[in-house]
């Protein structure tokens, strides 16, 4: 209730700040490079990565520097990794669900999910978002039958350089609320592992737009 009351009181300023950011924010492209492949040697591992711009590699120039490239490179030291990336800038949980309706089923061992910041910026209510996240996991189970999900934790929006106060504070509080609901659910699922975002956001961890990860942060 306190957060809702604060947002209502601050809404003229928050709207003005959000519109200003849309005007001035640097528009970075998704990383170039392949979105599927096979790498490494050893026991086979079938990997899918699903998400938003943080999965699509916005903030770096090539997929080799992004989440997919750096993750598969690390795994390739131990496995023959067959991987594919399904990610889109601006994706929300709801839009990802809609996109998956036309995706082709395939067997996977592991699915990594990097998704949620765009739900925060749209202030999707926590109960609604949790239901969408549950539907997303259910859909992915039907499509890919993975043994395990790894869910990337929500980043601390309250420390994003691009965002001014009080918009930064408001989005940070909402991100924490969504993440609290999601963690409580994931803790009940044996096939879900939550990867907590517990780093200090040093400037060199962020891309030039002050919003997306740099290559260094993707590596971490």
Automatic annotation (TrEMBL):
SUPFAM superfamilies: SGNH hydrolase. InterPro entries: SGNH_hydro, SGNH_hydro_sf. GO terms for molecular function: hydrolase activity, acting on ester bonds. The keyword Hydrolase applies. Gene3D superfamilies: SGNH hydrolase. Residues 50-219 form the SGNH hydrolase-type esterase domain. Keywords: Hydrolase. This is SGNH/GDSL hydrolase family protein. It comes from Sulfitobacter sediminilitoris. The lineage of its organism: Bacteria, Pseudomonadati, Pseudomonadota, Alphaproteobacteria, Rhodobacterales.
